[in-house]
Amino acid sequence: MNIIIVSDGQVGYTLAEYLNKDGHDITLVDKNRHALQKASETLDVLCVMGSGANLRTLIEAGAESADIIIAATTNDELNMVSCLAAKQLGAKYAIARIRDPEYTESLTLLQDKLDIDQVINPERATAQEISRLMRFPFAINVESFAHGRVEMVEFRVEANDRIDRIPLSQLHSRYPHVQFTAALRDGEAIIPRGSFEIHVGDRLYVTGDRISVTAFFKQLGKDTQKAKNAILIGGGHVSYYLAKAVAGMGIHLKIVETQEERCRSLSESLDNAVIINGDGTDRELLESEHIREHDALICLTDRDEENLVTGLYGVRVGMRKVIVKINRLDTMEIIGDMGIDSVVSPKLATANVILRAVRARSHSQNSVIEKVYPLLADQAEAYEFIALEGGSYLNIPLSRLRLRKGVLVSMIVRGRQIIIPFGSDHIEAGDTVILTALAGTVVDLKDAFEATEK
Q1: Minimal CA–CA distance to 212: which of 175, 180, 183?
Q2: 3-state secondary structure of 14
């Protein structure tokens, strides 16, 4: 597909990088000469310098024949105008990044009047990710599939977890309702087979329905009690959306914000949060608010350094859960080495949601891609497909299909039935199929199989 990305920084570059690997023709529009130069030197993309709201720039970028226009700058208004202009010129589908809560409350009207097909709100997506993490304080990452019926939870294997050095073929009989879907060991992602043995220190993904996943972690002795109170450092959009997301869930929040005017605004719009005007990086303030008595510390300021320092302090005083927001994507792996496992990024959330949307529009005749999640430092990916009529892999036992190396059929959802797939199971038209695979291995469901039958 011909895709135009209107950007002003790292989000556009990340999108161009991913979509270029999928084989799309990418045109990157940016006013930043340095960003365009980097993209031109490292990616196979066409670069156009200018504003996405400028008709001449859009015409030069080929908006008349574009399949998708993605407006992902940090300026909501510029994104909306870019989408409107591109659609008027002939672009078939428009995706806009819109962050401000004031726009969010009237999104349906905005989309209709401005002819925007899909809106991406990175701060709200980040807040939803954090709310999932608060369910499992020990988890590094939690992803949901099949409308929330299936969960994939990442955690670090510890010495007392009782799964060390046991082949997965034996663990499946011990824990028959969950699937061990991906692991990271010594910096390398692994899609495990039956002979794989889990080691202490591995980062491991476990997949299953919500009840089975919770029961599995209880058997391991993990703390499965959700966080009931949390301190949020920074009163920006993510904090606002998080407070809205957990309203009614019995979770008590304190939001520490330096700007007095912003504190007033939050106090007026949020009923379930205590707003504190102060510096969240001040240890005396945190001690005065009894930080150790809280289940979670969530650092959400706009400065990565402040979030990191405050997060490390939370780790040092023994907080059950520490979550840090990061803007610079190249620092995320380093932070994991410092003892802070849960790192969120609105920029990465934006790229992931847009990537899913684009891949969903470029599906084949035999499957529809619903979701794509990068896993384990982007070395692996999880996919949610809907199998359609006509697929050569349908109604054939998995034992007779030749599964591609580095791919695992993690879960099959058929109606109300959630299936942990074994060799005798098969895929039917209409099934939701969840795959895990090494990055770049799968674009379509048929890519999971080297041949339809052995």
Answers
A1: 175
A2: helix
What pLDDT, on the 0 to 100 scale, is given for residue 100? 84
Sign of the CA dihedral running 166, 172, 173, 177: positive
223: left (phi over 0), alpha (psi -120 to 50) or beta: beta
What is the per-residue pLDDT for 451?
64
Helix (H) or strand (E) holding 407: strand 407-414
The predicted-structure confidence for 9-48, as pLDDT tens digits, reads as follows 778 888 888 888 778 899 999 998 888 888 889 999 999 9
The answer as to CATH 3.90.1580.10 being correct for domain 132-220 is no
Tokens in use for 188?
């390398």
The tokens of 276 are what?
């504190």
pLDDT in tens, 260-299: 999 999 999 998 899 999 999 899 999 999 999 999 999 9
Please, which residues have CB within 8 angstroms of residue 34's CB and are 6 or more apart in sequence?
none
DSSP codes of every residue in 127-151: HHHHHHHTT-TT-SEEEEETTTTEE
Closest-CA residue to 196 (of 176, 173, 170, 216): 170
Asked if pLDDT for residue 335 goes beyond 80, the answer is no
Q: Rounded to 5 degrees, what angle do the CA atoms 13, 16, 22 make?
A: 150
CA distance 315 to 127: 21
The letter for the amino acid at 85 is A
Contact, 246 vs 272, CB < 8 A? Answer: yes
Q: What kind of fold does domain 363-451 have according to CATH?
A: Alpha-Beta Plaits (3.30.70)
Q: What is the pLDDT of residues 124-136, one digit of tens each?
A: 889 989 998 988 8
Instruction: Name the CATH superfamily housing domain 2-120.
Output: NAD(P)-binding Rossmann-like Domain (3.40.50.720)
Whole-number pLDDT of residue 330: 67
List of residues 6+ apart from 54 with CB closer than 8 A: none
**Residues 293, 287: Cα–Cα separation, whole Å:** 10
Domains 2-120 and 228-319 share a fold: yes
- Residue 233: strand, helix, or coil: strand
Listed residue (370, 368, 327) closest to 349, CA to CA: 327
SS3 at position 416: coil
Residue spans per domain, the chain: 2-120, 132-220, 228-319, 363-451
| Assigned superfamily of 228-319 | NAD(P)-binding Rossmann-like Domain (3.40.50.720)
Residue 422 in tokens: 């074994």
User: CA 318, 320, 325: angle at the middle one, nearest 5?
Assistant: 100
- Under DSSP, the state recorded for 197 is B
